[in-house]
Write a structure and sequence with these properties.
143 residues; alpha+beta; 5-stranded antiparallel β-sheet; 5 strands
């Protein structure tokens, strides 16, 4: 699932507008738009923000709900990736869910970083949207 890729949005002076985002993600624009619509429809009180991070030398998109970071998103050539950081309690939720077997395996394969374990989805097709929605809901509902 997750692979090492070169950051695209590395110029601090260039804010990632929709036009820039769509020019980078190409055919995955529909998944982007459906993800953003899902957030607006289901979590309208959530906060969506682009921010430049000096440690990674790139712009990242962050979605927060009730002060909790739900996911981080970065653009890569031709698409985007979303990373969720889930605590130990999430293991039974993940393994017992209807997430794809690839996502479950990705989560279980990763090591904990402090109290969290990451799961990353690199968007390759429209069907990735189903996993993204499930992970958003799972993360929001986690205490």
């Amino acid at each position: 699932m997750a692979t090492s890729v070169k950051p695209i949005l590395s110029d601090k002076a260039v804010y990632p507008t929709d036009e820039i985002v769509f020019s980078i993600i190409g055919d995955n624009r529909s998944v982007w738009e459906k993800t953003m619509s899902y957030l607006q429809e289901n979590y309208p009180a959530g906060t969506r923000e682009w921010r430049y991070y000096n440690d990674g030398k790139q712009w990242l998109f962050k979605f927060l709900f009730k002060k909790k970071t739900i996911f981080w998103l970065s653009l890569i050539s031709g698409t985007f990736r979303i990373t969720f950081y889930l605590g130990g309690k999430a293991e039974s939720l993940i393994t017992g869910s209807t997430l794809s077997e690839d996502v479950k395996a990705e989560f279980l394969r990763k090591e904990f970083s402090g109290p969290f374990r990451p799961v990353t989805i690199i968007v390759k097709r429209d069907s990735d949207l189903d996993n993204i929605r499930k992970l958003i809901d799972m993360k929001v509902s986690q205490k």
